[in-house]
Design a protein that fits this description.
Blueprint: E1 4-10, H1 12-20, E2 28-29, E3 33-43, H2 48-51, E4 54-61, E5 64-71, E6 78-79, E7 82-88, H3 101-111, E8 117-133, E9 136-149, E10 152-165, H4 168-179, E11 184-186, H5 191-200, H6 222-246, H7 250-268, H8 279-313, H9 320-341, H10 345-362, H11 371-390, H12 398-418, H13 424-449, H14 452-459, H15 464-484, H16 488-497
Antiparallel strand pairs: 1-6, 1-10, 1-11, 2-8, 3-4, 3-8, 4-5, 5-7, 8-9, 9-10
Length: about 500
């Protein structure tokens, strides 16, 4: 059997609120039930089952013992493992009770001639409720307790929403209603994985990461390919959000903004093939969080790229020290605001959508068509606006240049998403020239954005010398931008001459 669960980690206060809160009127529910669960996890001395991607536990339940084997337990907020249960006579495992012969053989191979022994255990108080929503049935389980191994222990505070019947839309609806105003993080690990990490003494380190391409193939259907594309954007968003909270590395904001932009481009590719009521809200959350993170990234660009070269070449250094101090204060306050936004309602909803939308795509009957045909349509549409603006590039005003820059970004992300479906040589040639043109628009935009230095200097109450330094930075970059802009038309013509590889 496979189960579909949404797993989240909660603060103590929000766990208590969720455990006993009265559900909204459009979410019917049963009375809560509370039980104590003790689960013992078994493995070989060298953790052979864990290496094989399997967990084996025996749980005290209803005055008896239940053995559970799980495989394919990857958890990224949502869990969809293979699960086989059987009643056993004691807390010791009984492998002959595993009815899935293929899974039993895999376990026997992992154990070989060694013996199983307890590695860790979890002890939780679980409160459960049955929910009905959107024609489906969902079970809510709220767990509070500990995972223990030897002298080490760690707290567990989790909520699980398991789809018992119906579509993933029912799970999305229930999650929005129950979790929308709570502070939570998606669970990245199963209880079994938490126990193993505790037993092995492993810790986590957050650091910014660039996007990893979605692995799609020509033989994929739309559901498979679009799920992979969403997953690629989700991973980039999640890891860099965490890095933004745990480090002060400017790369975290940069990669998070890219991840949110890639997500918005991915969602645009879904519009023609789904009418899900949660798609517009999904897009709004990504847009609003992207705008918030963008302000932090702009501050980082000013500090790292716009001010230093002008300061280094300025004959008179007066005012630059004060300007940098003002910028640093502004960047700190902006970072704090972004962290608040990334812990607020928009982030809560975005987490739910990122986690559950792959299942919504899988259930969409319209997405069983080949991905290549859909990709051609998406790329043809993405080319329309850059082509229209590019062919009158010399006459574009500042507003239309900004529109062109955004259109090129959208095109770039969508080209990169679908590049594996087409000729590698042609796609890479197109992407290289597209990047060249984007570099021109990127610098021109940074030069335009540099004018915010003056507002920052005033807002941070920096003095007249800082104002003069800010003016010098703005003026120098604006002059350089006029020179750089001369390369826009030649770069566009080279791009326009390349074959449309999706044709």
């Amino acid at each position: 059997m496979r189960e579909l669960e949404l797993k989240v980690e909660l603060t103590p206060a929000d766990l208590a609120r969720l455990e006993w809160r009265t559900p909204p009127a459009d979410l019917s529910t049963s009375s809560p039930k509370r039980i104590r669960l003790r689960s013992i996890y078994y493995d070989t001395p060298k953790h052979g089952l864990h290496a094989a991607g399997i967990s084996l536990r025996v749980r005290r339940q209803d005055e008896g013992w239940v053995q559970t084997v799980k495989a394919d337990q990857h958890v990224d907020g949502v869990s969809n493992p293979i699960e086989v249960e059987a009643s056993v006579g004691s807390e010791a495992p009984e492998l002959d009770k595993i009815t899935d012969k293929k899974l039993r053989r895999k376990i026997e191979k992992a154990i070989k001639a060694t013996a199983l022994h307890p590695v860790f255990e979890t002890i939780v108080q679980r409160t459960t409720r049955k929910l009905r929503a959107k024609g489906g049935e969902v079970e809510l389980a709220v767990d509070e307790g500990q995972v223990r191994t030897g002298d080490a222990k760690a707290d567990l505070r989790e909520a699980e929403l398991e789809l018992k019947a119906g579509s993933a839309e029912a799970l999305v609806f229930a999650a929005e209603k129950l979790l929308g105003d709570l502070s939570f993080e998606l669970s990245r690990r199963s209880k079994a994985e938490r126990g193993y990490r505790l037993a092995l003494g492993k810790t986590d380190e957050a650091e910014p990461q660039k996007a990893k391409p979605a692995r799609i193939r020509r033989k994929d259907d739309c559901a498979t390919a679009l799920t992979a594309i969403l997953g690629s954007a989700a991973r980039q968003i999640n890891v860099n959000r965490r890095a933004l909270f745990e480090t002060d590395d400017p790369e975290a904001a940069h990669q998070l903004r890219i991840g949110l932009r890639r997500l918005r481009s991915a969602l645009r590719t879904l519009r023609p093939v789904t009418d899900s009521p949660s798609l517009p809200a999904f897009e709004r959350c990504a847009r609003d969080l992207g705008r918030a993170v963008g302000k932090l990234r702009d501050a980082d660009v000013l500090i790292a790229s716009m001010v230093p070269p002008i300061e280094a070449s300025a004959g008179d250094q007066a005012g630059f020290t004060e300007l940098r101090e003002a910028l640093t204060r502004y960047r700190t306050s902006t970072r704090d605001k972004v962290r608040v936004a990334l812990g607020g309602p928009d982030w809560t909803k975005l987490q739910l959508y990122l986690t559950l939308w792959p299942q919504i795509l899988e259930e969409n009957a319209h997405l069983d068509k080949p991905i290549t045909k859909h990709a051609r349509k998406v790329l043809r549409k993405a080319w329309i606006k850059p082509a229209k603006l590019g062919r009158k590039l010399d006459t574009l005003d500042a507003t239309h240049r900004h529109e062109m820059r955004k259109a090129l970004k959208k095109l770039r992300y969508e080209v990169e998403f679908f590049a594996p479906l087409f000729s590698h040589r042609k796609t890479q040639r197109f992407i290289r020239q597209l990047k060249t043109l984007q570099d021109v628009f990127g610098y021109v935009n940074d030069a335009r954005m540099a004018s915010t230095l003056i507002a920052i200097q005033k807002g941070e109450r920096a003095g007249d010398e800082a104002a003069a330094a800010a003016g010098l930075v703005v003026g120098t970059h604006q002059a350089e931008a006029r020179h750089v802009w001369k390369g826009a038309n030649p770069a566009w013509k080279k791009l326009d001459r390349l074959p449309r590889f999706w044709g």
